[in-house]
Design brief:
By secondary structure, the chain is mainly alpha-helical. The chain has a domain of 245 residues. It is built from 14 helices and 6 strands. Strands 1-2 form a two-stranded antiparallel sheet. A two-stranded antiparallel sheet has the order 3-4. A two-stranded antiparallel sheet has the order 5-6. Strand 1 and strand 2 form a beta hairpin. Helix 1 packs antiparallel against helix 2, helix 2 runs antiparallel to helix 14 and helix 7 runs antiparallel to helix 8. The longest helix has 42 residues. It is globular.
């Protein structure tokens, strides 16, 4: 096996650069999965009902989708280079094992790009139903792309599909690697998260508009459609999170122990909310007696493996993992309450809640969903540390040993600052243009 070493500062720079790139790209990746589905739904409703407001939404979302796809292609390209430049110990040793999902993701990306071009170009050049069908491959390819990338990450948590002989990889089975035991819980959790982030982000934009007095049908549909979409998926996501936690209890117990701050193995383990790790104890937390044992094994007698069964050098950093996990779960239940608020009022009045506090809550839900997404990825990635390939290869042994990785971090940071400013500027300019066109569109709608 290839073993490398780097200065602590370079290792930190490499990890921070990867975290920055992943954290920035993952938002665009989620929009790349969720926006095509929402756009096609709006176009389908326009064709089915003849409601011009849905068609206006579809056209506007499609334009934004094209911009975000182009920017996401840039950040995705940066990530692909970083895998080889920053982590040669991983790719040099295990590239042949995890090459298949990356190849499949590349194919899905090209399919998505081709049909996105057709979809955007052919708005007024194809019959409406054919144009709608041209968007279906975009949805399928976006979901497939997310599946393949996340399956590679799942392999890093549950490595399969190879043997090691004297430190060398042999008997490679790339299909077994891609469909490893962690693939189902991770891919389900991530794809649901992508749709949720998209729904809450888009609805938050229209909530801000409604708070500023724009209460027309366009804004109501722009809020209600993606918000309903996301709210319906939120309880499913919570169930998927429970499935993932049960998986960790059996397959990655050290990560679960870090998530919940469990230091000692035993039964009747409480479910903790909040808290700060001090020494080998979680303090200042709210405890639900036997809650974790019940969630994992449906019985208070279920034994939960604590961090005392993991050597100290192999333990994840509990403070970071536990805090990020609590942030993710807390926001998830807050979004569940928001969806319940909408459902209750709609059931009673067939209308949106009239309180401005509801609009304020929706306005912050997009940012909150993004924060939950980032916290979830921190939980997944930091919870695997100190391993980059769990149980086989440490992160410190996979990093590029060449000096000067801090320079790369600074350069990439500058690139993302420029990308962020440019993306926000283009989207805001498009929004202003659309608002100026709104009177003509309203006239056609009437």
């Amino acid at each position: 096996m290839l073993t490398l070493s780097a200065a602590p500062l370079d290792l930190l720079a490499a990890r921070e650069q990867m975290a920055l790139s992943l954290g920035w790209h993952i938002i665009l990746a989620c929009l790349g999965v969720g926006m095509p589905a929402l756009t096609l739904f709006a176009e389908w409703r326009a064709l089915r009902t003849g409601d011009e407001a849905y068609l206006v939404l579809a056209r506007r979302w499609a334009k934004a989708m094209g911009v975000l796809f182009a920017v996401g292609a840039v950040s995705g390209t940066i990530l692909s280079f970083e895998m080889g430049i920053l982590w040669p110990g991983l790719m040099g040793t295990y590239g042949q094992v995890i090459g298949l999902p990356f190849t499949m993701e590349g194919i899905a990306f090209f399919v998505e790009a081709i049909f996105l071009g057709i979809y955007l170009y052919a708005w007024d050049r194809l019959p409406p139903r054919r144009h709608l069908l041209a968007g279906v491959p975009i949805v399928v390819a976006g979901i497939a792309s997310a599946f393949f990338v996340v399956s590679a990450n799942a392999w890093m948590n549950q490595p399969r599909g190879f043997d090691l002989e004297h430190g060398r990889v042999t008997d490679v089975d790339p299909w077994a690697a891609m469909f490893n035991p962690a693939t189902p819980p991770e891919t389900i959790h991530m794809i649901l998260a992508a749709f949720m982030v998209t729904g809450y982000l888009i609805s938050s934009v229209y909530a801000v508009g409604m708070l500023r007095g724009r209460r027309d049908r366009h804004h109501r549909l722009g809020l209600l459609t993606p918000l309903t979409f996301a709210a319906v998926l939120t309880p499913l996501q919570i169930a998927a999170g429970d499935y993932a936690a049960r998986f960790l209890a059996t397959n990655q117990p050290a990560k679960l122990a870090a998530l919940e701050g469990v230091y000692r193995t035993g039964s009747h383990v409480p479910l903790t909310i909040g808290g700060i790790p001090v020494g080998e104890e979680l303090r200042y937390c709210l405890e639900i007696p036997s809650g974790l044992s019940l969630l994992v094994g449906d019985s208070p007698d279920t034994v939960i493996t604590g961090l005392d069964r993991t050597p100290v050098p192999d333990r994840p950093p509990v403070a970071v993992v536990h805090l990020s996990f609590d942030v993710m779960v807390g926001i998830g239940f807050a979004l569940l309450a928001l969806g319940a608020w909408l459902a209750l009022v709609w059931w009673r009045r067939r209308d949106l809640p009239r309180s401005r506090w509801f609009l304020r809550a929706v306005a912050v839900s997009g940012v909150a969903a993004c924060c939950a997404l980032e916290a979830g990825w921190i939980t997944t990635e930091v919870g695997r540390q100190p391993w980059i390939v769990w149980g086989h290869l440490r992160t410190a042994d996979a990093v590029n040993p060449a000096p000067g990785l801090l320079v790369g971090l600074i350069v990439v940071l500058a690139v993302y600052v420029v990308l962020t400013i440019g993306t926000v500027y283009v989207l805001r300019r498009m929004a202003r243009t659309d608002r100026r066109a709104a009177p003509q569109e309203a006239g056609r709608s009437s």
